[in-house]
């Protein structure tokens, strides 16, 4: 899908405020409401906009510990990777699962838990019990410096 400056501007605004109403969005990008709404619907139907979500405060929910876990697998087969990915997808604590290269690990997980006891339980009772997991290295987030959900868009003038 070819994006013009209006589409890019719509995407930029919606990434910052997914709850904006169509009238306000149209005003911000310089279109009337009807063509603005048609463009938003086209962006949704094309699959470029995949959803709208609320961002929650983990600490206020009691999730005070964030960890990055590097996972090493015993075999590099599609079946082994598929099994691992299916197993971690159902764990609510797993926020991200990335298949990576250039490390001694095959996967990086980002998890959010209440405390160290919760982390230990998740690690020992769930993650290390997944067939094929041979190594686990954990890092704990001390402070989040940047948190973005908006993808960089190159808006042309």
Account of the 3D structure:
There is one protein chain. The protein is an alpha+beta fold and 157 residues long. It has two domains: 41 residues, Winged helix-like DNA-binding domain superfamily/Winged helix DNA-binding domain (Arc Repressor Mutant, subunit A, Orthogonal Bundle), CATH 1.10.10; 82 residues, 2-Layer Sandwich (Alpha-Beta Plaits), CATH 3.30.70.920. Helix content is 35%, strand content 19%. It has five helices and four strands. Strands 2-3-1-4 form a four-stranded antiparallel beta sheet.
Instruction: Summarize the biggest pleated sheet.
Output: 4 strands, antiparallel
Number of helices: 5
Low-confidence residue ranges: none
For the record, the CATH class of the largest domain is Alpha Beta
Order of helices and strands: HHHEHEEHE
What structural class do you assign from the helix and strand content? alpha+beta
For the largest sheet, list the strands in their spatial order.
Answer: 2-3-1-4
What is the total tally of β strands?
4
What portion of residues belong to β-strands? 15-25%
């Amino acid at each position: 899908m070819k994006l013009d400056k209006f589409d890019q501007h719509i995407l930029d605004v919606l990434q910052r405020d997914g709850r904006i109403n169509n009238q306000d969005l149209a005003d911000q990008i310089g279109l009337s409401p009807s063509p603005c709404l048609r463009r938003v619907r086209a962006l949704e139907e094309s699959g470029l906009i995949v959803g709208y979500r609320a961002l929650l405060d983990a600490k206020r929910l009691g999730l005070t510990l964030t960890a990055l876990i590097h996972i090493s697998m015993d075999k590099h087969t599609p079946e082994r990777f598929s099994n691992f990915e299916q197993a971690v997808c159902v764990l609510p604590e797993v926020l991200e699962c990335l298949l990576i290269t250039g490390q001694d690990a095959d996967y990086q997980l980002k998890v959010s838990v209440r405390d160290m006891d919760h982390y230990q339980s998740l690690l020992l009772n769930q993650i290390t019990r997944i067939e094929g997991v041979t190594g686990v290295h954990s890092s704990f987030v001390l402070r989040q410096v940047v948190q973005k959900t908006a993808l960089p868009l190159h808006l042309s003038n």
